[in-house]
Write a structure and sequence with these properties.
The structure holds two protein chains of two kinds. Chain A is an alpha/beta fold. Chain A is built from seven helices and five strands. Chain A has a five-stranded parallel sheet, with helices on both faces. In chain A, helix 1 packs across helix 4. The longest helix of chain A is centred in the first third of the chain and has 12 residues. Helices cover 50% and strands 13% of the residues of chain B.
């Protein structure tokens, strides 16, 4: 007997819309997800989650968590925040978060496949330096640039560094990120705007 | 996605960051026109710093055109097709029409592969930075040519797929305001509009079996209009002022066939540019204004940037999105772009306002 599909509601919180597009593309490109899930876009801001098995908020994760903080945690029990847009405000409370600006499609596929027990692949949590192609002439030594590679998740396979540009930290911080050491290094280099650049992708010291 | 609140927040963030870091921010304003934003921003800065590289501009032109194709694909398959064929459910649509969905995903992949060859990446939003030079070798050129051939096949299939629908006859009559030099575009009293008589004749010639029946109305409206107020037919406009002619339009055309035709034309442009790679490098770039402009899928994007004295950070920034209803900003843009006579200025303001649906 065929089981009923898992219903997913997708609400695009204040963002450029790339997260929601990535989520849709993840469900469309993966055969398994296409069979087991049904995705529906939600047009109004959800006050609670009754209609869906999973409610996804996409966009600025700090703004979303600020919004969700108003409610009791049980109201949005099976909810997920996908996205990591730039924001100035500093309030964070997690439900379940898949980070990155733009978010990596593979992370979304892995998460939902593991939910239905199809795969237990763990997403790559090594830093960008691990994937960096220019290990001999590190950009940290270059006086013009400042690279966030050592503290950033390398799920992008160091896309910016392959294009000859420094890492900006858009995929979120690794668990053992030592920002204090990196800030010390930045100061020595004369890079004054370290904290501002760090906050752009919601990374925290 | 037109989200002004989100845009304002990023505008504020621009003021704090280092100039080498800021190109990342411009990419996060609007996903469908990410590189158009990036390019317009860089042009605004480079024009102020008097950096100009014709070869880089040549590649930026290709990148912005590729992005317009990418955006049209998203609109056609993720927004319009599910609405028309499966009550707005995208997952159902992908199950009912797997070939179209595969073609869409393949086309997206091809576009990203070409973008990677040009030094950027749409999947992870790798920015173009200030003064960055791009170079191509013969192998890469071959890859781009074969990719564009594959894309052409995909768009031909898309055309056949969408020609199953017949367009409803929603014809409006509008007042004509101005004609372009080639008389292939016009601006009317109801927003930005254009006439595609050339592409329409091509359509009749090559696609007799298609379901698009527009009868004798050649004038069409929509966001795919490309506005250039500097190329206006003066003689024709004098006559227009006297006679006030009215014309009929079909604004539904741009939603489906207009987008496919534009994408095909853009593909042809890109191929032509790549084939004439060495010759086209000679072109010159204008400089010294605070303004940078770039074409996007829905219109034009304008950036107005003022730098600090040490040229390390941004002092002021104003972003006008492709459908922004900001008349004041357009007037500032007009004043700074060209110091023209009073009459000419008023006329151009009127045209621009109508192009942005402000009147």
């Amino acid at each position: 007997m065929i089981k009923e599909k898992i219903k997913i509601g997708l609400f695009d919180f204040e963002s450029c819309g790339f997260c929601s597009q990535k989520i849709l593309q993840a469900f469309l490109s993966d055969k398994n997800l296409c069979l087991f899930y049904d995705v529906q876009k939600v047009s109004e801001i959800p006050q609670k989650n009754i209609d869906f098995d999973f409610l996804i908020f996409s966009g600025d994760r700090k703004l979303i968590s600020q919004y969700l903080k108003r409610f009791d945690h049980n109201v949005f029990k099976r909810s997920l925040i996908i996205g990591n847009c730039p924001n100035e405000n500093q309030i964070l409370e997690t439900i379940k978060i898949i980070g990155g600006c733009p978010v990596d499609q593979k992370k979304i596929i892995n998460f939902f496949e593991s939910e239905i027990g199809l795969s237990d692949k763990q997403t790559d949590k090594s830093s960008v330096c691990f994937h960096c192609p220019i290990s001999s002439r590190c950009l940290l030594k270059n006086p013009e640039y400042f690279c966030f590679g050592p503290v950033t998740i390398g799920s992008c396979q160091a896309a910016c560094l392959k294009a000859g540009l420094p890492c900006s930290g858009c995929q979120g911080e690794i668990t053992a990120a030592n920002y204090y050491k990196l800030e010390e290094f930045a100061r020595k280099k004369g890079f004054e705007t370290f904290n501002n650049n760090l906050n752009i992708f919601n990374n925290e010291k | 996605m037109k989200n002004n609140h989100h845009k304002d927040k990023i505008e504020r963030l621009f003021l704090k960051t280092d100039l080498n870091f800021s190109p990342n921010l411009s990419l996060r304003i609007n996903h469908s026109a990410a590189y158009a934003h990036n390019i317009a921003y860089l042009r605004a800065i480079e024009n102020q710093l008097l950096i100009s590289d014709p070869l880089t501009e040549y590649f930026r032109d290709i990148i912005s055109k590729l992005e317009i194709i990418d955006s049209h694909l998203d609109n056609l398959i993720l927004k319009i097709a599910p609405l028309v064929f499966s009550n707005g459910n995208i997952i159902d649509f992908s199950r009912e029409f797997p070939i179209e969905m595969k073609n869409y995903l393949r086309a997206k992949k091809i576009i990203n592969q070409v973008l990677i060859l040009l030094g950027v990446n749409k999947e992870f939003l790798v920015p173009i930075t200030i003064g960055k030079k791009i170079l191509l070798n013969s192998n890469q050129i071959k890859k781009i040519i074969s990719a564009s051939e594959e894309m052409e096949i995909i768009f031909n299939n898309l055309w056949e797929f969408f020609s199953k629908i017949s367009l409803p006859k929603t014809i409006k009559t509008v007042e004509l305001l101005a004609l372009s030099e080639n008389r292939d575009k016009f601006i009317s009293s109801r927003g930005k509009q254009f006439c595609i008589s050339n592409t329409f004749s091509y359509l009749i010639r090559n696609r007799k079996d298609s379901g698009y029946q527009l009868e004798k109305n050649e004038y069409l409206v929509g966001p795919i209009a490309r506005l250039n107020i500097n190329k206006i037919d003066r003689k024709a406009n004098d006559n227009i002022k006297k006679t006030n002619p009215k014309i009929s339009i079909n604004n539904l055309f741009e939603i489906i066939p207009g987008r496919i035709i534009e994408s095909q034309n853009l593909l042809f442009d890109i191929l032509e540019k790549i084939l004439n790679y060495k010759e086209s490098i000679k072109t010159k770039v204008s400089s010294f204004t605070e303004i940078g402009v770039c074409n996007s899928s829905d219109g034009i994007i304008i950036y107005r940037v003022k730098l600090e004295q040490n040229n390390r950070r941004i002092k002021e920034i104003q972003i006008i999105d492709d459908c922004d209803q900001n008349s004041l900003a357009i007037e500032i843009f007009l004043k700074e772009i060209k110091k023209t006579s009073k009459e000419d200025f008023l006329f151009k303001t009127k045209l621009l306002r109508s192009a942005f649906n402000l009147e």
